[in-house]
Specification:
By secondary structure, the protein is an all-alpha fold. About 60% of the residues lie in helices and about 0% in strands.
């Protein structure tokens, strides 16, 4: 069953997370990726 309120809450959460990530610098994104075990490859040259 479609739950409009839940969909709006999910969309708002998505927008909040997206806004946060867009505001991060490349170095901050690299550090965040590493925190979650994501290998950054060549991008690690920004360190």
């Amino acid at each position: 069953m479609f739950n409009e309120r839940k969909s709006i809450e999910n969309f708002n959460a998505y927008q909040c997370i997206r806004s946060y990530l867009v505001d991060l610098s490349m170095q901050e994104l690299i550090e965040l990726a590493k925190d979650y075990g994501i290998e950054v490859g060549k991008l690690s040259s920004f360190e």
